[in-house]
Structures are given as C-alpha cells and as structure tokens.
Amino acid sequence: MRLDKALRPLESDALTIAAVIVELPEESLPEVPRLEPKPISSDHITKTVLNRRSWIAGGAASALSLSLFALWSTSGSNPEEQLKSTLEEWRKSIMRGRPEEHARRFYADNVERFYMKRDLTPAQVATEWWTILKRYPDIVKLELRNVKFEAVGNDRASILLDKDWQMRGKGIFEGSVQQRLQLIRVRDRWRIIQEFEPKVYWVKRSEK
Description:
This protein is an alpha+beta fold. It folds into 2 domains: 40-74; 79-207, Nuclear Transport Factor 2, Chain: A (Roll). It has helices at residues 3-6, 42-73, 79-96, 99-106, 122-133; strands spanning 7-11, 17-21, 111-114, 117-120, 138-150, 156-169, 171-186, 189-207. The protein has a 6-stranded mixed β-sheet with strand order 4-3-8-7-6-5, covered by helices on one side. A two-stranded antiparallel ribbon has the order 1-2. Strand 3 and strand 4 (117-120) form a beta hairpin. Helix 3 runs antiparallel to helix 4 and helix 4 packs antiparallel against helix 5.
C-alpha cells in the first residue's frame, strides 16, 4: 500500500492540517507467534517451596544469632570470657577465707544444690563453709584445671573442671575432685545455683 493512501490531509476552517491514519488491511500486519503454556511438574513446585522455606529458616537463624550476639555485646565481652573471669574471682574469694562475703557475691538467692544439701540460701552456704574453715582455716592451695564450659546459653552456663586443694589447721585436708558448677546470669553477673562433685579422684585427711 502507498503511504499517500494511508495518510489523507484534511483542511479545517482555521487552515490547520492533521494526519488521519487509515486502518491498514489485516494481511499487512506481522504475524505474532502464539506461546503455548508449559505444564509445571509437582517436583518443580516442591523444590521451589523447599528452597523458599530453607531461605526463610536460614534468615531466621541468622537473625537469632545476631540477637544473641547483641545481647552478649552489651556487657562488653563474650560469655566464655565472663565465665573465666568469674571462675578466677570465685577461686580467689575462697582463698581469702571469708564465707559470708564469698556467698553473697557468688551464689544465687536459691542454691538448688550445694554438695549433699538442697535449696540453700547464700547465708546457709556460708554456714557450710564455716564448718570446714573452723577445722582447717588455712587454705594453702586451690587449683582449677581442665576447665570445660558446657551448655552456655543466654542466661545459663555449666562448668566442669578438676579441682586440687589443700587446707591446714587441726591437721591436713587435701584432695583432687571433678567439680561441677551450674550458674545463671542475674543482673549481668553469674551466680551459682549448683555446686557438687561428680567424681572424687582422691581425698586425704590427717589429724594432729
């Protein structure tokens, strides 16, 4: 078809010109290929859903890790470093031989287990210490080794270690045991709720 037949000039009273596009015949339009829809297999749908769930789960896990990290970061150090510091302070406090101060500083309001006894207050823990110190007031040695931090969470921790000690007074009281400490975090400080000895390697008492 010629272009002059497709566009016809029109003249209005205002002497303006417009172009009118005449409808082109159907046979001159290019043919557009039809796209047939492809069936989606059930395996493809399952893989897509699983991939999306994995992505969501991974994102949730990352968010949880970041949240826990943020909680620990507020205190300026990680939980294991805090526990190491608390453990060394606990050891030094025992060496000083001041049961009331020691119990107030390191034990929770309710001590679920303290060796063979259950549900003690810090004051009662101090009384237990006095029972030993009256007979052996001089703590010559207290060494902690093979320290393992277990089940460390946001506000709970468990410590397993070997303890060697020697106390003197009305004789000598010494030994080596496996010690278990379980702690909770209260107002940014670790407090002992359980203290006991799963294994006794050896114990010796000699009286004067």
